[in-house]
Automatic annotation (TrEMBL):
Cofactor section: Zn(2+)
Protein name (record): Alanine--tRNA ligase
Keywords: Metal-binding, Zinc
Domain of life: Bacteria
Gene3D superfamilies on file: 2.40.30.130, Threonyl-trna Synthetase, Chain A, domain 2
InterPro entries: Ala-tRNA-synth_IIc_core, Ala-tRNA-synth_IIc_N, Alanyl-tRNA_Editing_Enzymes, Thr/Ala-tRNA-synth_IIc_edit, Transl_B-barrel_sf, tRNA_SAD
Location(s) in or outside the cell: Cytoplasm
Domain (Alanyl-transfer RNA synthetases family profile): residue spans on this chain: 1-229
């Protein structure tokens, strides 16, 4: 069985697609192509709606990766049969917020130039863990730097390189102990202006100016060398959104 086509890799703003059901499991279906991002890389799986040809709607409550490159959509309702044509529609407001936050996480990794040991995000906040020994990190300075790049409205683009090219340029990988995602020997790079270029399989906005202003909510010690930095949207009244 062929892998699910990851439409979001090339068209992250597409939020509706027609697909064919390829496999059915308990409470979930896999399709031939999808705009739904599966949970991974710290980004939550997409949610939304699936509609069958009879017009019945079923909520998609999560999206996850499966074997052989399949992407599974977990449903709350009766499952369509294999071979059925369905329409998948994202909860776009939630996805777009995740795209904003994921791009903000990349900016954080530039503002704090240390190895990344972990990360996670929701539509409302995101955090990265850094391997930092003895360095004083300033919340206000990091916030100002990230919001400066947001104000600059830098372009965000994608390019593909071979796994061999990545191996020859290991400095592109910021995460510790996590291999970048590959697709047939190709590695997807997300590039932000001239300031960042790193492997990533997640979804991002097209320009940093689309990100609402953020604030560094906290910097916490999680061990002798681990610093956890959490970003949140600036509260309403401070130039951002709640």
């Amino acid at each position: 069985m062929s892998a699910t086509v990851r439409q979001f890799d090339h068209a992250p703003y597409q939020h509706v697609i027609t697909a064919e059901v390829r496999a059915v499991a308990e409470h979930a279906v896999a399709v031939d192509c999808t705009v739904f991002y599966p949970c991974g890389g710290g980004q939550m799986g997409d949610t939304g709606m699936l509609r069958d040809e009879a017009g019945h709607s079923m909520p998609v409550v999560d999206t996850v990766k499966g074997e052989q490159g399949l992407i599974w959509h977990r449903l709350d309702g009766e499952l369509p049969a294999v071979g059925a044509r369905v329409e998948l529609e994202l909860d776009w407001a939630r996805r777009y917020r995740l795209m904003q936050m994921h791009t903000a996480m990349h900016l954080l990794s530039v503002a704090v130039p240390f190895p990344v040991t972990g990360g996670q995000m929701t539509p409302d906040k995101g955090r990265l863990d850094f391997d930092v020994a003895g360095d004083a990190l300033d919340k206000a300075a990091i916030t100002e730097r990230i919001n400066g790049w947001i104000t600059e409205d830098l372009p965000v683009s994608v390019e593909w390189i071979t796994a061999e090219a990545l191996a020859a340029n290991p400095e592109l990988v910021k995460t510790v102990g996590v291999a970048p995602p590959t697709d047939g020997g190709q590695v997807r790079l997300v590039c932000i202006g001239e300031i960042d270029r790193q492997p990533c399989g997640g979804t991002h906005v097209a320009r940093t100016g689309e990100i609402a202003p953020i604030t560094v909510k906290s910097i916490k010690n999680r061990g002798a060398r681990n610093r956890r930095i959490t970003l949140e949207w600036q509260p309403t009244g401070e130039g951002g959104t709640s």
